[in-house]
Amino acid sequence: MRWDVIIIGAGAAGLMCAAQAGYRGRRVLVLDNAKQPGRKILISGGGRCNFTNRLAGPHAYLCANPHFTKSALARYRAQDFIELMERHGVEYEERDHGQLFCTDSAKEIVRVLQTECDWAGVTLQLRTEILSVAQGAVDEERFVLHTSRGELTCQSLVVATGGLSLPKLGATPFGYRLAEQFGLPVRPTRAGLVPFTLHTQDKDDFAELSGISLPVILTAEDGQQFSEALLFTHRGISGPAVLQISSYWQAGQAVRINWLPGQDVSALLADWQQQHGAAELKTCLGRLLPKRLVEKLLERSGVANKPMRQYGHGELAALVQLLTDWRLLPNGTEGYRTAEVTLGGVDTDALSSKTMEAKAVPGLYFIGEVMDVTGWLGGFNFQWCWSSGWVAGQFV
Length: 396
Ligand code: FAD
Fold this sequence. Notes:
Strands 1, 2, 7, 8, 9, 10 and 20 form a 7-stranded mixed sheet that branches. A 7-stranded antiparallel sheet has the order 17-16-13-14-15-12-18. Strands 3-6-5 form a 3-stranded antiparallel sheet. The protein has 2 domains: 2-191 and 341-393, 3-Layer(bba) Sandwich (FAD/NAD(P)-binding domain), CATH 3.50.50.60; 196-333, Beta Barrel (Elongation Factor Tu (Ef-tu), domain 3), CATH 2.40.30. A hairpin with a 5-residue loop joins strand 13 and strand 14. It is α+β, with helices and mostly antiparallel strands. 31% of the residues lie in helices and 25% in strands. The longest helix is centred in the C-terminal third of the chain and has 14 residues, at 380-393. The chain starts with a strand and ends with a helix. Residues 8-14, 31-34, 39-40, 43-45, 49-50, 130, 160-162, 165-166, 170, 172, 174, 340-341, 368-370, 379-382, 385 line the site of flavin-adenine dinucleotide. Flavin-adenine dinucleotide binds at residues 8-14, 31-34, 39-40, 43-45, 49-50, 130, 160-162, 165-166, 170, 172, 174, 340-341, 368-370, 379-382, 385.
């Protein structure tokens, strides 16, 4: 059967692109091997989908070409998606750092996208395996797809198959293999927005802190910093600060933790010495940090607990370092099993930032997470799906 546009992947990017192309009068087919569209949307944001971020901009994306995201993010902005939600009566709430979540359920987002696709006359075909893709002979049939449900041809082929995170939800490397088949480079992939695992000694030491969450500043070796919460778990460390920094971390590198963000710790210690000289360090620190954490930090660094007035200059300097620049060497990450995103992917140098079309293969488009574009935690990844999907939808 012949189509104008076939989109592989009925996720956030694929559905957005499909509706736009459909509204332009293109005959659009969306294929997916799953039995339900938008499954990642449904589980995202704890079931409430952090669907965009008011502060979305190129600064919040990792991409080998830092300029690549500018055009699409400017043409379809967070505000455009917010207005789409409002037109469909979706209620939402704003949390810290500009993050927008559904008030009710992530199902609302899938409902909106499916409604838009219905209105635009898009055909959705689920439970379909794509067995092979070949280049066709004529312009109207540039691509020939052999699928588990027969042969299909199209003029424009859009790859929206996402990344490798959450394999239990059916993530596949299909998009990367297809890019390679057509001669497009794929940048190495790894798990991003993912908890850290710890070396045995650290894991054993910190296991008893499991469940403690506190605000910190985490710094990666390249200087990237995030000021958010850190959570101790029975496997290692997690929480927003850790997920964010994981995207900037390479195996073998350390991260640095400031346990007292926003405090002038040197001044604080001096104040305690003068005002509370008889009070023990643990008691003073216990007013600002969880007591179990204070004990663990002092125990691990070999700092003696004694009345504040007994600390000398050298010891105070060591304390400042311990509290504001504590070095931790993660063992690794939890990997794709729990990662929210995949770093790397189809090299954006091979794609047009204005259309998402492969420069060397007319009619072949890549959108969403399959590309080498990864957002911070906080709704930025969905915004990239909306922006790249919308832009491609104007050209396919
Ligand atoms: P996907 O949503 O992964 O869709 C790809 C589609 O392609 C799927 O339907 C899949 O079935 C289909 N597919 C794959 N391979 C094939 C194949 N071989 N043949 C046919 N079909 C195929 N981001 C945010 O911005 N906010 C959040 O709150 C948020 N929460 C998240 C929570 C979790 C637990 C996870 C894992 C991710 C979260 N993300 C969040 C990231 C976000 O979900 C993804 O970046 C986004 O879903 C990517 O969309 P996509 O359309 O590119 O790909």
